[in-house]
Amino acid sequence: MKMTARRTAGLLFALLCLPLVLLAAEPQATHEFSLDNGLKVIVREDHRAPVVVSQVWYKVGSSYETPGQTGLSHVLEHMMFKGSAKLGPGEASRILRELGAEENAFTSDDYTAYYQVLARDRLAVALEMEADRMASLRLPPEEFAREIEVIKEERRLRVDDKPNSLAYERFKAIAYPASGYGIPTIGWMADLERLSVEDLRRWYENWYAPNNATLVVVGDVTAEEVKALAERWFGAIPRRALPPAKLPLELAEPGERRLTLHLRTQLPSLLMGFNVPGLATAKEAREAHALRLIAALLDGGYSARLPTRLERGEELVSGASASYDAFKRGDSLFILSATPNVQTGKTLEQVEAGLWAQLEELQQTPPSREELERVRAQVIAGLVYERDSISQQASTIGQLETVGLSWRLMDEELAAIEAVTPADIQQAARRYFKRERLTVAHILPEESRHE
To answer: Residues 269, 342: one domain?
Structure first.
């Protein structure tokens, strides 16, 4: 049914006027148990359609890697589709396609995950295949030789030939001086060039164990069904001793770091990042939730401070953003980015000063309750809409569990966000927006190098 813009705006206004507690849907029935081999299983029932999402999350990603051995987690993710004891290269994907399933995988700095979306009566097929490659992955040298070239080309296309991606990679490398978060998930090209099948075999044997994994199933199933299938397919896989995995902690105040990059870009741009904790490392969870709301205050849509003041008001920038990821295994970054309004002759130095002015205002004056309530309602509404998807429910559960938090935060975070006060916003701004925590990158067009 087509909906007019006026009707959509009216519904959004009505939604934002509701008490926040009414925006939170009732938590779904969620069950947690572990097999004898240490595999954690979380089942969330959602019976609206005969569909199920199955995900296996491993606690390993690029932040587990070390200098000289980068890209391992991502390359292994690719090789997980290249054959196991029961199936040859690509056969699992072919079978799932024929069953009408959607499948894929992803790697980050904190985890590697594999998922299928399929009809509820096909769940056993997905679990059998996941258990098979958890227990008996094949790493054919000829498949590796082909796939590593694919990954190197992926790096060229997605990073080396994309100025914004390349700038962000270099920025992260100095923004995280003490932890593995400075390592790019795809790996440095020099390390990809010297990576071997033996390196991947060791990585697989170190980390791909049931006691280092979480199986998440969301959809039209019951806990009893999933438990029987998990026992059948995963139960016989032995647990293994795991390497130590320490939290990626950062220096609290490493000192101001600055980077200038000349890249193939038409417009200059700016990145600013502050070393801050995530939910897993914050002394008080309220601080992390305050930082989430600060990001929304600055960049939560058309009426947020950055577009209202710096873009349309002062015409200082042609675009600006703020972001913060609270859901990491270790510490995080609060990031601001902006592009100067070159049509009005603005410079990177002026933009940097303008962004600092917005942060200093938060430090000096807490937001009004009205502004905070509006932003809070937008954040909570976004979370509620997001969680209408069974895939997003599964991903949220898997991420929380894999970074060392609990899936229960999913059903508690709306109340935690609602509890943040204007004073909490001001306190977080004062504590974390310091030059001692700051990394700045100025990204300039190549031709400006010679001016």
So the answer is: yes
CA–CA–CA angle 267, 272, 275 (5° rounding): 155
250 lies in some domain: no
Q: Which residues contact 54 (CB under 8 A, 6 or more apart)?
A: 115, 116, 118, 123, 126, 127, 130, 215, 216, 217, 394
> Which tens digits make up the pLDDT trace of 44-66?
999 999 999 999 999 999 999 99
Report the CATH number that the domain containing residue 80 is assigned in CATH. 3.30.830.10
Query: Does 21 reside within a domain?
Result: no
| The predicted structure's pLDDT at residue 277 | 97
What is the reported pLDDT for 17? Answer: 44
For residues 254 and 378, the answer to whether their CB atoms sit within 8 Å is: no
Dihedrals φ, ψ of 42, to 5°? -125, 125
- pLDDT value at residue 450: 55
Q: What is the pLDDT of residues 211-244, one digit of tens each?
A: 999 999 999 999 999 999 999 999 999 999 999 9
In this structure, the answer to whether residues 423 and 320 fall within a common structural domain is: yes
Place of tokens 């303008």: 354
> What residues are annotated to the active site?
77
Helix (H) / strand (E) element for 237: namely none
- My answer on whether 276 and 408 are in the same domain is yes
